[in-house]
Design a protein that fits this description.
The structure holds two protein chains of two kinds.
Chain A: H1 6-27, H2 33-41, E1 45-47, E2 52-56, E3 62-64, H3 65-78, E4 82-85, E5 91-93, H4 101-110, E6 127-128, H5 143-153, E7 168-171, E8 185-191, E9 197-203, E10 215-221, H6 226-240, H7 251-258, H8 260-274, H9 283-290, H10 308-315, H11 317-326, E11 327-329, E12 335-340, E13 351-353, H12 354-367, E14 371-374, E15 380-386, H13 390-399, E16 414-415, H14 429-439, H15 443-449, E17 454-457, E18 471-478, E19 481-488, E20 500-501, E21 506-507, H16 508-525, H17 533-540, H18 542-549
Parallel strand pairs in A: 6-7, 7-8, 16-17, 17-18
Antiparallel strand pairs in A: 1-2, 2-5, 3-14, 4-5, 4-13, 8-9, 9-10, 11-12, 12-15, 14-15, 18-19, 19-20, 19-21
Helix pairs in contact in A: 1-2, 1-4, 3-4, 3-12, 5-9, 6-8, 7-8, 10-11, 14-16, 16-18
Chain B: E1 3-7, E2 10-12, E3 17-18, E4 29-32, H1 33-45, E5 50-54, E6 72-77, H2 84-95, E7 101-106, H3 113-118, E8 123-127, H4 132-138, H5 156-159
Parallel strand pairs in B: 3-4, 4-5, 5-6, 6-7, 7-8
Antiparallel strand pairs in B: 1-2, 1-8
The chains are: A alpha+beta, B alpha/beta.
Chain lengths: ~550, ~160
């Protein structure tokens, strides 16, 4: 993974000093809350319903075991013993005390971490395919480009006060696991007709109040032009994005208003001026950064199957279920990717305790080359586990309560923090998540339902991405009571689509029953066990589902 | 309210007055871009120098042909969150080759000093109640600059051995 050099370390330390001074001025009354707000927001510090929340950047979702131990330490010493993995692969702490945040940031800097640009109207932390570098369907590892863009966007002097936030995601794989079509800029590494790898650039995707699928602005851009092209996009946006209405301020609205062709023409005009400046990447620089991401030393002896895993799987159905559901194919022979589920009946989706983080760091050191990833689905991953070690790892993961064998199923759901933390929410998403998890605790039934994505937001700002759930749920406030609207048919994968509302909002007490009726209707009408919920919905349309829900 | 002006990192006496409309006083004046474009010939004939105020809505390219004769361009920041003039500053310096004074007026805060300066702004007009010494310190909040901007044509990786 990327390691800081003296320059990277220096800039992060200087950031801590700067923020320490800002906090000092705020606590001393030199800065009003209004003046302090934009400053703390550039550093991931939000004021929530009860307290400050700090969002710590996890660039492209990659962590070392030392970093994970530090995150555990911070949860213990500065918070209430847990953190929360976000849909953008970051980690949030819900209870830090303002006066201690500078010390917290200093501790993060000790392990090459920070909270820079995790909020505010700037270029945010960049996300990527959580299986980058190990996925069998990968064309090229996107992480070197993420790191190059991380550095370019860090304290970019021109783009700290954009009309609105700006999110970038990368994938180098054939199957999109980074939802690139729902980002302000999405980058896919693809081959052109000559077999050369370049960047397909999508622009203007996003969820929120106005969900839009991004459009292709460049089919194939040479890698050398990645930074100059992105700088041209962001400059056009900075100058022409809507600054009067924050709900129309994202780049997606500008792209829609102009149309992709007119927008591209403006970008191209600007790009022509800066294409051959210092922004142009060289092969040497790409190779320098890529050298940090060379494939690890996978052990050749791992290729020899000692038979233990198959033997244990035959004896132990719980292990067999976990193996089938929570591990994935790795590109190296003898290895598997292991998903650690942060969706259990024990705690809210995405939450992880200090003890779990310490345990996960130990597991990574013992079995997965000391590296851990976070995912867009709010889980964690050990990417390089020898198949022969899977049983031992599973026992440890089960003890840590991160082995619920539900990856990709209905209970591997995404939800926003909702009323429990967020000042904007109408609905207690976490409570609903708990009800769903309890209702669908029968694994055989869950597996019968197959791959199913449930995504839930507590308000129209859509932090729980309800528009792209196979089943989407939105909390609304109706006569001061919690109500929920259901939408069906969304997807954030390669078959990207936005869900459609099914019918009137449902009172909280009836919601989980409605979800039950929805999925049992699916079982009744699917044409085979292999037809996913989403495919059935696309085939039969909303009407029968509507009839099933609104009996 | 009287103002404080910082140029090249130090407080200086300043003679420029912003005049939106109406009769111009004697001395150095800054007028809106639209007025300058309309009246540039008569403005050039008056005693005292004339500079231009650019807002986020204006296009710096409108001034392209006359930049050599404009001693000062003031970039207006009506709210600190309106970041359009950061782009204007870079366009003026890097695309249009403007070498005169670029000053920031309006709501500019200490914590933006580093960014403003990197985009090519050399002069800052502060309110009387702002701490000028603190602002000057803010110009050097960071010693590392990853990306090119008006102050640095090359990214870090082209400048140093990494």
């Amino acid at each position: 993974m990327y390691r800081y050099d003296d320059y990277d370390q220096q800039i992060v330390r200087e950031r801590v000093d700067q923020f320490r001074d800002q906090v000092r001025r705020r606590l001393g009354g030199e800065l009003t809350e209004d003046e302090f707000r934009p400053l703390r927001l550039q550093n991931g510090l939000y004021l929530q319903r009860h307290a400050y929340m700090l969002r710590v950047a996890i660039p492209y979702g990659l962590l070392s075991s030392d970093q994970v131990r530090k995150l555990a330490h911070i949860a213990r010493e500065y918070d209430r013993g847990y953190g929360h993995i976000t849909t953008r692969q970051n980690i949030q702490y819900n209870w830090p005390e303002l006066a201690r945040v500078p010390d917290l940031l200093d501790e993060l800097a000790d392990v090459e971490m920070h909270a820079i640009q995790t909020s505010g109207n700037c270029i945010r932390n960049i996300t990527a395919d959580p299986l980058a570098g190990v996925a069998p369907d990968e064309i090229e590892d996107p992480r070197p480009y993420c790191e190059i863009m991380r550095q370019w966007s860090t304290f970019h002097p021109e783009f700290a006060y954009l009309p609105r936030k700006f999110k970038v995601a990368f994938t180098g794989a054939e199957n999109d696991r980074a939802a690139v079509a729902y980002h302000d800029i999405g980058v896919r590494l693809v081959r052109n007709d000559a077999g050369e790898v370049g960047c397909r650039i999508l622009v203007g995707g996003g969820l929120g109040r106005t969900p839009i699928i991004g459009e292709v602005i460049q089919e194939w851009l040479p890698k050398r032009d990645l930074l100059s092209y992105c700088e041209a996009i962001v400059r056009v946006y900075n100058l022409h994005g809507d600054r009067k209405n924050k709900y129309r301020a994202r780049i997606k609205i500008l792209v829609k208003q102009l149309g992709i062709d007119a927008f591209r023409a403006q970008v191209d005009e600007e790009w022509a001026r800066i294409r051959d400046t210092g922004l142009a990447l060289t092969d040497a620089e790409i190779e320098r950064v890529a050298a940090y991401f060379t494939p690890p030393a996978w052990r050749p002896e791992a290729e020899v199957d000692d038979g233990r895993t198959a033997e244990r799987a035959a004896q132990d159905p719980a292990f067999e279920r976990w193996l089938r559901r929570n591990t994935m194919k790795h590109r190296a022979p003898g290895y598997r990717v292991v998903m650690l589920s942060l969706k259990s009946k024990h705690r809210p989706p995405g939450d992880v305790t200090d003890a779990q983080l310490d345990g996960i760091a130990d597991m990574a050191d013992r079995w997965s080359l000391g590296r851990i990833r976070t995912t867009h689905d709010q889980n964690m991953v050990l990417t390089d586990v020898a198949e022969n070690d899977l049983f031992a790892l599973w026992q440890q993961a089960a003890e840590l309560q991160v082995a619920t064998p539900n990856i990709g199923t209905l209970t591997d759901l995404i939800c926003c923090p909702g009323l429990d933390f967020c000042a904007l929410a109408n609905a207690g998403s976490i409570g609903i998540a708990k009800q769903v998890t309890e209702r669908f605790d029968d694994l055989d039934y869950l597996y019968d339902l197959g791959d199913l994505k449930l995504k839930m937001s507590g308000c129209i700002n859509a932090c729980g991405h309800h528009h792209v759930g196979h089943i989407g749920i939105l909390g609304i406030n109706k006569n001061d009571a919690e109500y929920y609207q259901i939408m069906l048919g969304g997807s954030e994968a390669d078959d990207a689509s936005l869900g459609k509302w099914l019918g009137p909002a449902i009172p909280k007490a009836d919601l989980v029953d409605a979800v039950s009726r929805l999925v049992s209707h699916y079982l009744a009408v699917r044409d085979s066990d292999s037809e996913r919920f989403l495919d059935t919905y696309r085939r039969v349309g909303p009407k029968p589902f509507k009839e099933a829900v609104y009996v | 309210m009287s103002e404080q002006v910082i140029r090249n990192g130090a407080p200086v006496a300043d003679s420029w007055v912003v005049v939106d409309e109406g009769a111009l006083p004697a001395g150095d004046v800054l007028v809106p871009a639209a007025r300058w474009l309309e009246e540039r010939d008569t403005l050039a004939a008056r005693p005292g120098r004339v500079g231009v105020v650019l807002t986020g809505d204006d296009d710096p390219a409108d001034l392209a042909a006359d930049l050599a004769s404009i001693p000062v361009i003031a970039l207006a920041f009506p709210k600190f969150a309106d970041g359009r003039c950061y782009s204007h500053a870079r366009v003026l310096r890097e695309h249009l080759g403007y070498t005169g004074e670029l000053r920031a007026i309006g709501e500019i805060l200490r914590d933006q000093a580093f960014y403003l300066h990197r985009c090519g702004i050399d002069t800052f007009v502060l309110r009387e109640d702002q701490d000028a010494a603190s602002f000057v310190k803010g110009l050097e909040d960071f010693s590392v600059k990853y990306q090119p901007a008006a102050d640095e044509a090359q990214p870090l990786w082209r400048r140093v051995r990494r």
